[in-house]
Design a protein that fits this description.
Structural class: alpha/beta
CATH architecture of the largest domain: 3-Layer(aba) Sandwich
Number of strands: 10
Distance between the termini: 47 Å
CATH superfamily of the largest domain: Vaccinia Virus protein VP39
Bound molecules: S-adenosylmethionine
Strand content: 15-25%
Order of helices and strands: EHEHEHEHEHEHEHHEEEHHHH
Radius of gyration: 22 Å
Helix content: 25-40%
Number of domains: 2
Shape: elongated
C-alpha cells in the first residue's frame, strides 16, 4: 500500500527548525504521548534521539540532492526528516501500521517522501524506486532481522550504490572482519563479495529511545559493480562457506562432509585443498574469499 504524504501545508524546504525535529528527545516524547504509541519489541523499535548520530549517518551515506533514498523502518520519522532535506526523493518502508498516521504528521512538511506500509523483506525495491534508478539504502535497522535484510538486498541485486545502516556493533565488526579472527564468518564473506564495508561510527545505547541492551555501529557498504572474485557457481560457493562455518571448530573437510547442503566426500575436499596448496587440516576461518571461490570451482568441476 502506497501512502502519498504530499500535503497542502507546504513550507519552504529549509523546513523544520532543529529544535523542533524528532531528534530532539523532548519532541520524540511529545509525539509518542500525542499518539499514545506503544513501542513494539518484536519490531526492534529503538528510535534515534541524537542529531549528531543522524548527521554522521547522512555524512557516511554521502547523500546529495540527486539521490533517491530507500529508508528501511522510518519509525516516527526521525531520520526521515533529515533524509528528506538532503535527498531528491525518499521511499520509507515501515511494517508497523500504528506508525503510519504518526509519519503522516511528522513528515507532512515534505513533498519528496512516500511511506510504504510493508515488510521490507516482501518489498520489490527496484519496482518501488523505478526501473533503472540507482538508490542509496539508509536505515537504523531492526536488529532482529539485520542479516536477512542485508543479504536479501544483495541477493536480490537491488540497484543500490550503497547501504548505510545502524546495526548491532558486533554485527558491524563481523561484516568487516578479515580471515583468521574470531569475528570472521559467513556474513563477512557474503558482505565482502558484494560490497566494501567501512565502519563510520560507534554509537552508545543512550542515543536511542528505548535504550537497546547492546552497543551499535554505523556501517557503510559500498556496492561493487562486479564482485572482487570470479566464481563459476556463486550458489555453490555460498553453500561451501555456510558448511565451513556451521561447525567452526571442525576442519573445513569435516565441516563440508557433515553438511546437509552439499555432498562432497572428505577425499574430494582433500584433493581440492591439495591442488590449492592447503593442508587437509585447514579450518574454514583461515580461507579468504578468493580461496573459497577457488575451492568452489575445483569441487564444482
Ligand atoms: N528509523 C527510526 C529511527 O531511527 O528512529 C526507527 C528505527 S527502529 C530501530 C527500526 C524500525 O524498523 C521500526 O520502526 C520498526 O517498526 C521497523 N521494522 C521492523 N521490522 C521491519 C520490516 N520487516 N520491514 C519494515 N520495517 C520494519
Amino acid at each position: 500500500m502506497l501512502i502519498d504524504l504530499r500535503i497542502e501545508r507546504r513550507i519552504e524546504l529549509s523546513i523544520i527548525e532543529k529544535d523542533a525535529r524528532l531528534s530532539n528527545p523532548k519532541v520524540t516524547i511529545e509525539t509518542i504521548k500525542k499518539y499514545n504509541f506503544a513501542f513494539q519489541k518484536r519490531f526492534g523499535q529503538n528510535f534515534l534521539i541524537d542529531s549528531h548520530v543522524i548527521d554522521k549517518i547522512i555524512e557516511a551515506a554521502d547523500i546529495t540532492k540527486d539521490d533517491i533514498i530507500v529508508e528501511i523502518g522510518p519509525g516516527i520519522g526521525t531520520m526521515t526528516q533529515y533524509l528528506c532535506e538532503n535527498a531528491k526523493k525518499v521511499y520509507a518502508i515501515e511494517i508497523d501500521k500504528n506508525l503510519i498516521p504518526i509519519l503522516a504528521d511528522t513528515l507532512a512538511p515534505y513533498d519528496n517522501v512516500e511511506v510504504v506500509n510493508q515488510d521490507v523483506l516482501k518489498t520489490d525495491i527496484e519496482a518501488l524506486a523505478g526501473k533503472g534508478n540507482k538508490v542509496k539504502v539508509v536505515a537504523n535497522l531492526p536488529y532482529y532481522i539485520t542479516t536477512p535484510i542485508i543479504m536479501g538486498l544483495f541477493e536480490n541485486h537491488i540497484p543500490a550504490e550503497s547501504i548505510t545502516v545502524m546495526v548491532q556493533k558486533e554485527v558491524a565488526y563481523r561484516m568487516q572482519a578479515e580471515p583468521g579472527g574470531k569475528d570472521y564468518g559467513a556474513l563477512s564473506l557474503a558482505v565482502q563479495y558484494y560490497a566494501e564495508p567501512y565502519i563510520a561510527a560507534n554509537v552508545p545505547p543512550n542515543c536511542f529511545m528505548p535504550r537497546p541492551g547492546v552497543g551499535s555501529a554505523v556501517i557503510r557498504l559500498t556496492a561493487y559493480d562486479n564482485p572482487p572474485v570470479k566464481v563459476k557457481d556463486e550458489r555453490l560457493m555460498f553453500k561451501l562457506i555456510r558448511a565451513s562455518f556451521n561447525q567452526r571448530r571442525k576442519t573445513l573437510q569435516n565441516g563440508i562432509n557433515n553438511s546437509g547442503e552439499v555432498s562432497f566426500t572428505k577425499e574430494q575436499v582433500e584433493n581440492a585443498l591439495l591442488k590449492m596448496g592447503l593442508p587437509a587440516s585447514v579450518r574454514g576461518e583461515t580461507l579468504t574469499l578468493e580461496q573459497f571461490a577457488m575451492l568452489s570451482d575445483l569441487l564444482g568441476e
